[in-house]
Write a structure and sequence with these properties.
The protein has 173 residues and is α+β, with helices and mostly antiparallel strands. Helix content is 23%, strand content 35%. The longest helix is centred in the N-terminal third of the chain and has 21 residues. It comes from Robertmurraya kyonggiensis.
């Protein structure tokens, strides 16, 4: 009799574990690497930004150079990406001058139609309400971003903005 109760408990535990795995909607961590971060933004940031976020994707060296210039990055680029396998994400945000944001990670979400970027504040002090510019350039796997149209910033000063990639071609016309 005890064996039967023991087996029923194990069976329920196993069923619970299977159901928990099936219902999981956790985002998948994407391969990503910080290329560069600098306190600058494009001149037309406030015209183009949605919910305080401006984002572009570079798929080749020409787009990369054009975006590097558009975001007014001063440091000279050291090396080229493997454009057959990689893309670069240019993320323009404003941050508190006393609580600068650092790139933490990127995750695929929304059935791989959006990338969630996690930023982490680096200060233990009270943050000021000033708006300091910040451009973050992230290298990501091209195949992981194939169906991605949106970038979502996780907990960006209490909101979770979800914005679409801007296109350079649209601005040049």
């Amino acid at each position: 009799m005890k064996l039967r109760i023991y087996m029923i408990i194990i069976l329920w535990f196993a069923i619970g574990m299977v159901l928990q795995g099936c219902g999981s909607t956790k985002a998948q961590t994407a391969s990503s690497k910080l290329i560069h971060a600098e306190k600058t933004l494009p001149l037309n940031y406030f015209e183009l930004a949605e919910q305080g976020v401006l984002v572009y994707k570079a798929s080749n060296q020409d787009e990369f150079k054009a975006l590097w210039e558009k975001f007014r990055l001063k440091e000279e680029l050291q090396n080229e990406l493997d454009w057959g396998k990689k893309v670069a994400i240019f993320l323009g945000i404003v941050e508190s001058g006393t609580c600068p944001l650092q790139f933490e990670s990127a995750e695929l979400a929304g059935e791989n139609t959006e990338i969630m970027v996690r930023l982490e504040g680096s200060s233990e002090m009270a943050c000021t309400d000033d708006a300091t510019p910040r451009t973050i350039v992230i290298e990501m796997n091209q195949s992981e971003l194939a169906g991605v149209s949106y970038v979502k910033i996780d907990n960006y000063f209490g909101i979770n903005p979800r914005v679409e990639f801007h296109q350079l071609e649209e601005e040049n016309n």
